Each structure stands twice: as C-alpha cells, then as structure tokens.
Inverse folding.
C-alpha cells in the first residue's frame, strides 16, 4: 500500500468513526433517518484504490465499529459499510450504471433482509405484530366506512402486500440515495469517470428466476402449515424474491411501453397498483417469471 492509500484509508476510517459517534450521541437519527450516508466514505475510497486495499479499510472500519458502538448497531453498520465497499469497488472496476444501480439495490435489500427479517428480534422488529396491526387497522377502516369487501379479495393478503410495499419503498429510496450521492461525489471530486447510460435493460437470467421463485415458496408453505417459528424468515425471503421478480417485470414493462408507445402507460400502472394491489402483484410476478424462464421480451417484443 502506498503512503497516499494509507493516509486516505485512515481518513476514511476516521470519517466512519465520526458518523458512528454521531449515531451513538443521537440514537435513531443516523441509523434510521439518514443511514444512507454511512456507505459514502468507503465508496469514495473504493473508487480511488484497488479492491485489495479497499477490503483492508473495510475490515479496519468494521473492527472499529465493534469497539465504539453497541453490538446491534455495529452489526447494522456492517451491512452499510459492505454496501459502500461493494459500490466503491464497482466504481473502480468501471461497472456500468445499471450494474452500480443493481448493486446498490441489492445491498440495501441485504440490509433489510438481515435486519428486519432474519435478525428481527435482535434489532427490535416484530413483523408478526406489525402485520397484525396493519390488518386490524385495515379491517377497522373497512368497518367504519361501510365498504363491502368484494368476494375473493383476501384482506390478510392485502395487509401483507401493504407491509411488503413499505419495506420495498425503503429499500428503493435508500438504495437510490446511495447510488445518486455516490455518483455526484465521485463526479464532483473527479475521482473516476462515470460510464455513460446504457440503453440495454436488465433481464433476470434463468438461474436467477429459479432462485427468486424458490425464495417466495417458503412463505405460503408456512401459512398453510401454520408454522409461526419460520414465518418471519419466510416473509423476509418472500420479500426478497418479490422485489427481484417485480423489478424484472418493470423492466419488461418499460420495453413494452417503448415498443408500442402506449400513452399514460406508467400512470395506468401506478393506478392499477393503488386500486388492485393483489391482482397487480400477481400479474407482475407472472410476467417477471415468464420473462426469465421463456425470454418473454425476445419472443413478444423482439427486444
């Protein structure tokens, strides 16, 4: 490692330490409201120096976090630091904008999967309790307003979709903020040259489609078997699979709109999501999986 890399590595670790101390002095501010700032110091370092040097700084920052922060906070910070390390390495290796965007979303999905899903009790999340609250509130609203639920509409599934949508929204917003701020910083500081936008859209490969399908299977099985022990991890896996499949379906929808030039297509898509979320999600899952399994966009749209 050169003198410059060591010096800037020490500065990166110091900046990360300052952020962790701020989080310790003001609980719930940095690690909840503006957690997307945490990856940025490592993004800047990773974009400038080799991946091997990046991992040295990452593990040093991680060790420091366990020394100055509570265990749960340090574990939480670890995923954000990993997010910054991966994104910074991507910038250094000159990944395309789409690869950088997907890496940012994937890293945020990993943060949510572990903190809210697999280790929910450790981080103070109660998915079952939250689901029951949403279901109760939805039932109360329908009762007070006198709205009759159409036959075949599962209120419990609508409540689950609402909860999933809220977490997916958090993943998208935080992932996009890290992506946007990282590109702005490296451009302003002239660290690396950002690759131009690609006209090619993301398509989920066959293996990825099979993995995503396997991720969404445990949840309905847990519900059918009434297995509450595995329910929280099953919901976390379900959310992960749904996000990947729906993202693939949205890319298909973008190509569909460009091919047939349908007016107000995006507006119609949003309105359908608001009016019939259950059917909208089912259709998007089917489209996303078909596009992965049988190359739907190539067969129908010639993309």
């Amino acid at each position: 490692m050169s003198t410059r890399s060591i010096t800037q590595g020490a500065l990166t670790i110091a900046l990360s330490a300052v952020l962790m101390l701020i989080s310790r002095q003001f609980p719930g501010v940095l690690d909840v409201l503006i957690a997307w700032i945490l990856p940025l110091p490592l993004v800047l370092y990773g974009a400038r120096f080799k991946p091997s040097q990046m991992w040295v700084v990452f593990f040093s920052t991680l060790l420091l976090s366990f020394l100055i922060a509570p265990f749960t906070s340090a574990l939480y910070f670890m995923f954000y630091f990993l997010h910054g390390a991966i994104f910074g390495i991507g910038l250094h290796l000159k990944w395309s904008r789409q690869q950088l965007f997907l890496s940012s979303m994937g890293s945020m999905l990993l943060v949510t999967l572990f903190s809210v899903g697999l280790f929910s009790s450790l981080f103070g999340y109660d998915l079952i309790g939250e689901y029951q609250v949403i279901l109760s509130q939805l039932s109360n609203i329908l009762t007070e307003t006198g709205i009759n639920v159409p036959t075949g509409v599962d209120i419990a599934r609508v409540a689950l979709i609402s909860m999933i949508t809220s977490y997916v929204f958090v993943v998208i917003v935080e992932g996009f903020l890290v992506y946007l701020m990282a590109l702005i910083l490296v451009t302003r500081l002239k660290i690396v040259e950002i690759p131009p936008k690609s006209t090619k859209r993301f398509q989920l490969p066959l293996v990825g489609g099979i993995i995503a399908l396997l991720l969404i299977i445990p949840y309905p099985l847990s519900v059918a078997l009434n297995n509450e022990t595995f329910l929280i991890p099953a919901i976390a896996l379900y959310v992960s699979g749904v996000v990947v499949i729906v993202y693939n379906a949205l890319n298909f929808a973008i190509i569909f709109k460009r091919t047939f030039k349908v007016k107000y297509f995006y507006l119609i898509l949003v309105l359908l999501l608001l009016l019939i979320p259950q059917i909208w999600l089912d259709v998007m899952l089917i489209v996303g999986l078909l596009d992965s399994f049988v190359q739907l966009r190539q067969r129908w749209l010639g993309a």
The CA atoms of residues 98 and 199 lie 10 Å apart. The two ends are 46 Å apart (CA to CA).
